[in-house]
């Protein structure tokens, strides 16, 4: 945790610790350390709490750090303003800081876990539909200032229901996870793979040189998903329907692009429907094909 202020308490041996404390001599030093690394908490001991909202570093700190302010003469209106700004707690007595810091850190961790659960498809660990739309909205806002082509690919797969009926829902979830890992391994770190339903994945190509690049990636991903998977000792195949929407040609907002790509995917015959699995070929190797 970071600590800024001359009257900060000794936090090394307090019962609410242990805390690893980095003390800062000035607001500029604290701002620099916040930029350099993440911290669980920031303790500010100040005689001028009303001036804190004007400190540029505070706006960034409250996003991912538990901020606690100690201000002995703080007015109620100033304390409420700081809480509305994102500060976790405002104290009049510095002796209460260890308890407030520990509880603020735990509340922040619980909030982060809740947000992750809300934005994640639990069976695959991928971002879910709402998180994908939020990410796309931010990226599209950036593209308004820095134009560059993007592509949205939707891959809806047949075969999961059959696996669930024959081997059980747990095996179907295993197959979804393996498909997710196979997609993730075939893309750049800057691309986003999301689960948008029990039988569909979306891939956001955040930067492409031309629409033709999106077509090539779509064909590659469909072919990858068409290769057999090993689930419960058996070869299982998914038959993907693939659809593509390009920015800005097919839309300039997240929902329009996703809706078009999904509509195109639903119109086409699944890739690989007529392909047969050679008897002497065995299972195709994939990064996620270890037996659980």
From TrEMBL:
Which CDD domains does the annotation name?
Answer: GGDEF
The record places domain GGDEF at 148-281
> Which InterPro entries does its entry note?
Cyclic-di-GMP_PDE-like, GGDEF_dom, Nucleotide_cyclase, Rev_trsase/Diguanyl_cyclase
Q: Which SMART domains match?
A: GGDEF
Q: Which PROSITE patterns match?
A: GGDEF
In terms of SUPFAM superfamilies, this protein maps to: Nucleotide cyclase
Q: What is this protein called?
A: GGDEF domain-containing protein
């Amino acid at each position: 945790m970071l600590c800024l202020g001359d009257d900060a308490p000794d936090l090394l041996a307090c019962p609410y610790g242990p805390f690893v404390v980095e003390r800062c001599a000035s607001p500029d030093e604290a701002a620099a350390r916040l930029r350099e690394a993440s911290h669980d908490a920031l303790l500010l001991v100040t005689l001028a709490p009303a001036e804190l909202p004007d400190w540029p570093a505070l706006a960034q700190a409250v996003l991912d750090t538990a901020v606690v302010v100690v201000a002995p003469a703080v007015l109620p209106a100033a304390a409420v303003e700081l809480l509305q700004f994102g500060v976790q707690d405002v104290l009049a007595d510095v002796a209460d800081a260890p308890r407030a810091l520990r509880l603020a850190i735990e509340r922040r961790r619980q909030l982060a876990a809740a947000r992750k659960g809300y934005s994640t498809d639990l069976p695959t660990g991928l971002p879910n539909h709402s998180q994908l739309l939020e990410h796309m909205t931010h990226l599209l806002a950036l593209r308004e200032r820095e134009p560059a082509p993007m592509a949205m690919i939707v891959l809806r797969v047949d075969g999961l229901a059959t696996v669930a009926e024959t081997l059980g829902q747990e095996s179907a979830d295993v197959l979804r996870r393996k498909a997710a890992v196979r997609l993730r391994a075939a893309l750049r770190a800057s691309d986003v793979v999301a689960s948008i339903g029990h039988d569909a994945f979306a891939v956001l190509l955040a930067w492409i040189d031309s629409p033709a690049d999106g077509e090539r990636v779509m064909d590659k991903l469909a072919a990858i998903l068409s290769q057999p998977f090993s689930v419960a000792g058996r070869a299982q195949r998914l038959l993907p329907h693939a659809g593509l929407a390009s920015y800005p040609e097919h839309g300039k907002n997240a929902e329009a692009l996703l809706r078009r790509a999904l509509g195109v995917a639903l119109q086409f015959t699944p890739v690989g429907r007529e392909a047969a699995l050679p008897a002497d070929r065995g299972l195709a190797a994939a990064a996620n094909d270890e037996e659980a």
